[in-house]
Design a protein that fits this description.
seven-stranded mixed sheet; Rossmann fold; alpha/beta; disordered N terminus; about 200 residues; 6 helices
Length: about 200
Amino acid sequence: MSNVRFGAEAWNARFSGEEYAYGKEPNEWVRLRVQAGDGKALVPADGEGRNAVHIASLGYETHVFDLSDVGKEKCRKLAGERGVEVHYEVDDLATRIFEKGFYDLIAFSWFHVPWDIFIEHYPRMIESLKSGGEFICEGYHTTQLGMTSGGPKSLELLWDLDEVLEVIGDVFKIEYAKVESVELDESDLHRGIANVVRLHLVKI
């Protein structure tokens, strides 16, 4: 698609194997925090669909956008295995059109983008969340740089909690917002002690 930014080729390559690059089970923070519901959920940048399929199994009408058409096909297969439906569009945060007040939940893990894109486009995505809707996510902290348990190798892509909340926090009530050291076991790509930002926010 013409509105998909450079980077899709790299993700397609990562997802091209028979195995699932990050496994088939959801991110642990997403699993712990997302409760059963029947509203609409957005799971951005979900790759092969592990978080989205889990959230769909909890009763949500679940939507994904991601750069990877290979990921879309892997998500379709996983959803079929688990007996759920996921609506998956190959699309880009920077050019995607968001309908205001549409989703009851936005949940994801590891959606790292350059900071200028974060500042401009994360708030646009958050506008698609209803008042009272939940925003649940996990990202790698700036102190993750140099560690071997996964994450971007550029400081520009990593999260500082205060900076993230400065950009998006004024429209939320904070349920949980901390930097933590956790042990990841998602795949060989995300395994070991990691420094992460964990957020659970509720839209005002």
